Structures are given as C-alpha cells and as structure tokens.
Amino acid sequence: MSVFLDELLTVCRFLVGGFFVWSGSSKFGNPAMFWSQIMGYQITGAGVSRVLAAVIPPLEFMCGLFFASGMLPLVPGIILLILLGVFCIAITVSLVRKADNDCGCGPKSSKVSPLHLVRNALLAALVVAGLFSPPLHYVGDYVVASCGALIIIGASIYRWRMLNR
C-alpha cells in the first residue's frame, strides 16, 4: 500500500475511535438517564436495559481507545461494528413505530431520526477502513488489552450497582 493510503486509513481509525471514546465517556456521568433512554426504545425489559446501560458506555470507551491507538484493532473494531449494527436496528424499530424517544447518543437530548442511520453507516465505513490500516505493535499489548477488559468489567459492575440503588 502507498504511504498516503496507510495514513488515510490510520486517520479513519483514529477518528472513529475518538468518536467512541467521546460517546462512551459522555454517558458515564448519569447511568440512570442512559438507562431511561434505552427503555425509551421499548425493545428490552428493565433488567436487560440495566445491563446494557451498565456495559455499553465502558465498552464504547475502551473499544474506541484501543481502536484509535491501533492496538489489536480487529477485536474492538468488530465490537464497534456490532454496537453500530444493534443501534441501527433499534433506531429502525423506533422509526417504524414512530416513537418520539431520545437516541441516547451523547450528553445532549436528540430525538431518533433517519440521520442517525446515516451517521452510523458512515461510522461503520470508517471502522471498516480503519481495520485495513497498518497494524501497530506494542510491547505487552495483550497485557494492556487484558487490563482494558478488566476496566470494562469493573466499570460495568460499578454502573450496575449505581443503577440498582
């Protein structure tokens, strides 16, 4: 590959990773609000919505961080694509039902709209492009990835406990 294409793909990986770091971190402060936004989709029950509200923000944050850094980008890239796909399904269901719910995308209230589907398609394209960027090799990358997984688990448990108070 040419150097320019490698750099362009790396920028794609960095941009989409940064978006998910922002998206995940913007949901950390108020798990109850994110839980109510998930409940607004009326797809899952209260228990499953609590699990999703506890797990999604740390997962978005850490996968975005790992994807942007280029450390083992395949696994976080696939997870981000799955999150985008599930979110597109939830948006589509909401649009078909003509529901007037908040998307739960970030710190500001934003009603579900077809533009969210367009944005997610662009983000998915950036993830796929980022998967083709040149891999970066770090010393101890599996140790760091394991620590990231522990952070996701710990943050999810903490958020779960906050939601069940």
Automatic annotation (TrEMBL):
<keyword id="KW-1133">Transmembrane helix</keyword>
<feature type="transmembrane region" description="Helical">
    <location>
        <begin position="14"/>
        <end position="35"/>
    </location>
</feature>
<dbReference type="InterPro" id="IPR009908">
    <property type="entry name" value="Methylamine_util_MauE"/>
</dbReference>
<keyword id="KW-0812">Transmembrane</keyword>
<feature type="transmembrane region" description="Helical">
    <location>
        <begin position="47"/>
        <end position="68"/>
    </location>
</feature>
<keyword id="KW-0472">Membrane</keyword>
<dbReference type="GO" id="GO:0016020">
    <property type="term" value="C:membrane"/>
</dbReference>
<dbReference type="GO" id="GO:0030416">
    <property type="term" value="P:methylamine metabolic process"/>
</dbReference>
<feature type="domain" description="Methylamine utilisation protein MauE">
    <location>
        <begin position="7"/>
        <end position="132"/>
    </location>
</feature>
<dbReference type="Pfam" id="PF07291">
    <property type="entry name" value="MauE"/>
</dbReference>
<feature type="transmembrane region" description="Helical">
    <location>
        <begin position="142"/>
        <end position="160"/>
    </location>
</feature>
<feature type="transmembrane region" description="Helical">
    <location>
        <begin position="117"/>
        <end position="136"/>
    </location>
</feature>
<feature type="transmembrane region" description="Helical">
    <location>
        <begin position="74"/>
        <end position="96"/>
    </location>
</feature>
<protein>
    <submittedName>
        <fullName>Methylamine utilisation protein MauE</fullName>
    </submittedName>
</protein>
